[in-house]
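Trying the structure run again after the queue cleared.
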Amino acid sequence: MATHTPSTPATPAPGDSYVQSFARGLQVIRSFSESAPRQTLSEVAAASGLTRAGARRILLTLQTLGYVVSDGKLFTLTPRILDLGFAYLSSMPIWNRAEPVMEALVQQVQESCSAAVLDATDIVYVLRVPTQKIMRISLGVGSRLPAYCTSMGRLLLADLDDDEVRARLEASDRAAFTKHTVTDVDALMAKVAQARRQQWCLVNQELEEGLISVAAPVVDRQGRMVAALNISGQANRTSAKAMQETMLPALREAADRISRML
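Done. Tokens:
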């Protein structure tokens, strides 16, 4: 299973409020991924939906700015591209203050802890404190996973109204990652409604066999959910019942502490 890649939204018409060349530059950056870390000009053009000439101009611009390097045939992103993502994290200093809270929670429950925000049909990891590798995929800051089959995703969807939840679920590529994955929209709407009522969400082996996680909300002063916090572990070591009874209270306390920082 590879790290989730978000779908590209519909392109608005160029105008005073839409800079097409900038949008195309982002398309080129987004064409690079775990499965395509090094690409030829033709591959970048095909992946970003641009002509070779258009992709070439953007790649050369990114190369001049230090965001891309090339060996003459293949293009690769440089570490400087991380500046774009860290601009978001540095604009939200709450996560610097939240990290010690998450570290203390990990010490207490001996399981990994993560924080994520909602972006369209995905969740995006903004902080992660692991204990040991429990998933086949590698997760870190900036990693994306589909919202419909993750505990943090369903909880974050629960903060939206039903029409918006349904629209995002219908726009999701609802793949069945395991035999437990719920993919039916109506069934997922019920799962999201349950998360809204109880203000926490547990997902048992829907994203990956053997992976179980529970999430709690991080809210601002107006009560709006700005992020979700979760604990994830192995189902053969921690049952859903045990996670709910022994770990959820500590998770909710940690999420409340982070919420108060807001």
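The CA atoms of residues 117 and 231 lie 15 Å apart. Worth checking whether this holds up in the mutant runs.
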